[in-house]
Write a structure and sequence with these properties.
Elements (H helix, E strand, L loop, with lengths): L1 E4 L5 H8 L4 E3 L1 H4 L3 H5 L4 E4 L7 H4 L7 E4 L9 H6 L3 E3 L6 H16 L2 H9 L17 E5 L3 H12 L3 E5 L5 H6 L3 E2 L2 H7 L2 E4 L13 H5 L6 E4 L8
Parallel strand pairs: 1-2, 1-3, 3-4, 4-5, 6-7, 6-9, 7-8, 9-10
Helix pairs in contact: 6-8
Length: 234
């Protein structure tokens, strides 16, 4: 079996792929000839940068599976892959904790004006009063999307003493309640949130969901964190 790893993976992952005796072509070995190597490949592994489109897939005569090391498959054209009988897989949840921690970091940075504080300090200024910021405690966090990442964010936000209201049509009220989360309609989440965080895939329903109209439904001064997909913002 020949596997083409088109983007950088950890060395331990590469070694794991080699263990069964499979042929693994790494990014360093590609030499810019992805089209040539994919022609005889059985499997392709990508991350976010490579666009696996119909033109590339047309060259893949033996390809049986495409694996994306990440959440979502929006950089892979599914229709031509399906027509060629190629299975497309991703790794949901693999980076859930990392994304949740990053989300909390973004919220803390905004609450405490860390970026501006860094700039002012480097400029030799100490504007303590204007950099005082606020606490996360007691604030309402609106979460759009309660999958693996959204749930991890909710657990951490509860530890900070935040109230949590969320929207996800696929999560039961009972499950949310067990995790201290109030389920609400999307517009109600917009209206209640002091901080709003998105944890949804990029679909026709979520593309451009943060736009002029949705912002009008939010509190003045709301802080929006998007550690999901840039396309959710219009």
């Amino acid at each position: 079996m020949k596997i083409v790893v088109a983007e950088k993976l950890s060395s331990s992952a590469i070694e794991l792929l080699k263990e069964p005796g499979w042929t693994v072509i790494t990014p360093d070995q590609l030499g810019g000839d992805l089209a040539g190597q994919i022609e005889s490949a059985d499997a392709l592994i990508v991350r976010s940068a490579l666009q696996v489109n119909a033109a590339l897939l047309a060259k893949a005569r033996n390809l049986r599976v495409i694996g994306r090391a990440g959440v979502g498959v929006d950089n892979i054209e599914l229709d031509p892959a399906t027509r060629q009988g190629i299975a497309v897989m991703n790794t949901p949840g693999a980076n859930a904790v990392a994304v949740a921690e990053h989300t909390m970091a973004m919220m803390l940075a905004m609450a405490r004006h860390l970026c501006r504080a860094n700039q002012l300090t480097h400029a030799g200024k100490w504007e303590k009063k204007s950099l005082q910021g606020t606490e996360l405690r007691g604030k309402t966090l609106g979460i759009v999307g309660l999958g693996r990442v959204g749930m991890e964010v909710a657990r951490r936000a509860r530890a900070f003493g935040m109230e949590i209201v969320a929207h996800d049509p696929f999560v039961s009220v009972a499950l949310a309640k067990e995790n201290g989360i109030q389920i609400a309609a999307l517009d109600d989440v917009y209206a209640a949130a002091d901080y709003l965080t998105l944890h949804v895939g990029l679909t026709p329903q979520t593309t451009g969901m943060i736009n002029e109209e949705s912002i009008k439904k939010m509190k003045r001064g709301v802080r929006v964190v998007n550690c999901a997909r840039g396309g959710t913002h219009q």
